[in-house]
């Protein structure tokens, strides 16, 4: 039996996935969690072979949770299931050691097959997401530029962004200006939107 942990903060989706995967004769749902923190707290007791995680979780996201799970249970393979299949997220997930990446529109039969594939040591990336990631290219932003754009995403002022990023207002303006120039944006709000659309923040 393939021991599976499901991590999704939407109860309806998580329980639906559990019900569908439970129908598979070679899959056993050994645990469910509504956050990355809950998953990490219970991981040693569940000892799953495969963790299926939502990308957008409250607190630590699915990619970081997957990375930490690998540190605690090295044999556990992780799959990210998301409605935010942006190229940057895919690249980040693969760099973190995630073995499967697919959209939430995936059928239950495909998800079960991907669980088997990653459990056997393989990888699976949704073909449409893979093609989009190749077309998008790598992020032109430095890590610090990405940070300040992330802080700018909710419309924060320069002073607020500087405080969150632990930078001076002048340095913050410089990073935002450089990021906007690289992305061909007229201001930090547009730059943030462009970076988010590509999954670079």
Automatic annotation (TrEMBL):
One of its GO terms (molecular function) is DNA binding. GO terms for biological process: phosphorelay signal transduction system; regulation of DNA-templated transcription. Keywords: DNA-binding, Phosphoprotein. Residues 3-119 form the Response regulatory domain. It holds the Pfam family Response_reg. The modification 4-aspartylphosphate is found at residue 54. Residues 134-199 form the HTH luxR-type domain. InterPro entries: CheY-like_superfamily (IPR011006), Sig_transdc_resp-reg_C-effctor (IPR016032), Sig_transdc_resp-reg_receiver (IPR001789), Tscrpt_reg_LuxR_C (IPR000792), WalR-like (IPR039420), WH-like_DNA-bd_sf (IPR036388). SMART domains: HTH_LUXR, REC. This is Response regulator transcription factor. It comes from Nakamurella sp. A5-74.
